Amino acid sequence: MKTLAIIGSTGSIGNSALKVYKNHKKKFKLIYLCANSNIAKLSKQIKEFKPQNAFLLDDKKIPKNKNLKLLNKNYALRYKQKKIDYVISGVSGYDSLNINLKLVRISKNLLIANKETIICGSNYFLDYAKKNNCNIIPIDSEHYCLNFFIKNFNIQNLIDEVYLVASGGPFLEKKIRYNENVKNVISHPTWKMGKKISVDSSTFANKILELFEAKILFKLNKNKIKILIEKKSNVHAIIKLKNNLYFPIMHKPNMIIAISNSLNVTNYFKMQLENLKIFFKEPDLKKFPIIKLGYKILRNYNNAGALLFTVINQRLVELYLKGKINYGEISHILVKVFKQKKLINLSRKKLNNLNDINRLIEFGQELKL
Question: How far apart are alpha carbons 112 and 13 in whole angstroms?
Answer without folding.
Answer: 10
